[in-house]
Design a protein that fits this description.
The protein is mainly alpha-helical. Helices cover 77% and strands 0% of the residues. The model has no long low-confidence stretch (mean pLDDT 84).
């Protein structure tokens, strides 16, 4: 392990792992900030490309960190990045679940659950906005994003793969220089 490269990655991802209310998508905005602007692990274009690959590939979208680890140090970096993101939160969840279930039904328990839900939604929305801003595809991107969200909201069983293909077709027809 190249300590000079991977220790900052491990420290960053362990922090994200332990604070990712709302799941993996809630870390996309701070991950983009760290990976592109603070640590310079990847540039904006590489981040968007890795994000797209992680969303299109089977498995959790937070596998984006695996791709960043791969970029930094090949297989070793990919493995370390993945473990740094998934192991700490898994251990924490196991411990919290054991305690959490003892207090189910108490008023503070329900209040805490209800209070954390909007925090998770806000973090996910921040990730969406961060990815949208660095993708730089303007109005067309936002139209496709809102249309996709609407379709999935009203037709939850609609295939995301079809939406992915439809979005790709729209951008191929619009051309690479389209940013209106």
């Amino acid at each position: 392990m190249r300590e000079g490269i991977l220790w900052p990655l491990v420290l960053t991802l362990v922090g994200f792992s332990l604070s990712s209310f709302g799941g993996g998508p809630s870390i996309f905005a701070p991950l983009q900030h760290q990976a592109v602007e603070v640590q310079n692990w990847v540039d904006s274009r590489e981040f968007v490309e890795m994000f797209a690959i992680s969303r299109a590939a089977p498995g959790p979208g937070s596998m984006l960190v695996t791709l960043i680890g791969w970029r930094l140090d090949g297989w070793v970096g990919a493995l370390i990045a993945t473990l740094a993101l998934f192991v700490p939160s898994s251990i924490l969840c196991y411990g919290v679940a054991r305690v959490w279930n003892r207090y189910r039904g108490h008023a503070w328990h329900a209040a805490l659950e209800n209070g954390l839900a909007p925090v998770g939604v806000g973090l996910i929305m921040a990730g969406i906005l961060a990815i949208g801003q660095i993708a730089g595809n303007g109005v067309l991107m936002w139209i496709i994003a809102v249309a996709s969200a609407g379709i999935l909201l009203y037709r939850p069983k609609f295939s995301p793969v079809l939406l992915l293909c439809a979005g790709a077709v729209v951008f191929m027809i619009a051309g690479p220089g389209f940013h209106a």
